[in-house]
Amino acid sequence: MIGRLNHIGVATPSIDESVKMYRELLGATSVTEKWAMPEQGVWVCFVNLPNSQIELIEPYGEASPIHAFLAKNPKGGQHHVCFEVENIHEARDALVAKGATVLGEPRIGAHGTLIIFVHPKDMGGMLVELMESPKDAHH
Amino acid sequence: MIGRLNHIGVATPSIDESVKMYRELLGATSVTEKWAMPEQGVWVCFVNLPNSQIELIEPYGEASPIHAFLAKNPKGGQHHVCFEVENIHEARDALVAKGATVLGEPRIGAHGTLIIFVHPKDMGGMLVELMESPKDAHH
Questions:
Q1: Least enclosed by CB within 10 Å: which of A44, A56, A98, B63?
Q2: Quick one: pLDDT at residue A137?
Q3: Are residues B123 and A21 in contact, defined by beta-carbon separation less than 8 angstroms?
Q4: pLDDT in tens, B26-66
Q5: How far is Cα B139 from Cα B132, in angstroms, rounded to an integer?
Q6: Which three-class secondary structure state does DSSP give residue A11?
Q7: Which CATH architecture has domain A5-132?
Q8: What is the least distance, in Å, from the CA of A49 to any CA of chain B?
Q9: What range(s) does the VOC domain occupy (chains A, B) (predicted)?
């Protein structure tokens, strides 16, 4: 079922500060602009690597789900891992049939394709995002 | 400086149980055998994805550094992220020159090339492994 490791999601109190760190300390050279996803309560920004991406996530608004994560991890840290799948509804149904807890209905994610999240209790303590592979091309 | 996202390191109380989860719930089809790295206090095993890998890490021996992580995260979870670099000594020197805390001297990692770890306090709360790209080929 799972295909490419599309990205790792990293929470941060400040995308601007994190981008500075990735550029200046780790020498990253390709970083997108940040943009808001109000319906998910996050600002996002991607650090592009040759084979994958780092998604930087900063809270947007008072109800952001990232506030609780940052309360426990004030400097930020690894928030989730995203794997690509061919079809999100088939993936969701297969997981539910095997007893996994899928969080919410498929919705549009940061790459414009459908995503779901799977509860860490079923995923070895790791929050897992599944996203449909973009239909245009891999990057 | 940083190149490919070589792997994400995921701690687990049981590699066997984790492999079962990746195979049965997430449909992973390519998983290596596990092997011990006594000098690092870990059992390791890799789940191969088309563009990257998941490194499963289980404690080996009483002094394993993974015991403390699992005490805080009994189900396991994301432990580190590994980026490739061309030259580990140059990467280490550049990071130290910029004030980052590099943990220990370059040593041979699970892929047979030199690795270092960089302290999470300098990396946005994330433990970062840097490894020299294997010289043979990318996989």
A1: B63
A2: 55
A3: yes
A4: 999 999 999 999 999 999 999 999 999 999 999 999 999 99
A5: 14
A6: strand
A7: Roll (3.10)
A8: 6
A9: 4-133
Mutate to test the interface with A, among B49, B57, B128 (most CBs of A within 10 A): B49
Q: Give domain limits for chain A.
A: 5-132
Query: What token pair was written down for A26?
Result: 């780790």
Q: Tokens representing B123? A: 């990396």
CA distance A34 to chain B (A): 17
- Secondary structure class of A54 (helix, strand, coil): strand
Rounded CA gap, B30 and A60, in Å? Answer: 38
Residues 6 or more apart whose Cβ sits within 8 Å of residue B104: B116, B117
Evaluate whether ipTM surpasses 0.90: yes
For residue A51, what is the nearest residue in chain B, using CA coordinates?
B4
Q: How far apart are CA A88 and CA A110, in angstroms?
A: 15
CA distance B11 to A60: 30
Six token digits for residue A129: 């995002």
Contact predicate B4/B138, CB 8 Å: yes
Tokens of B51: 């563009």
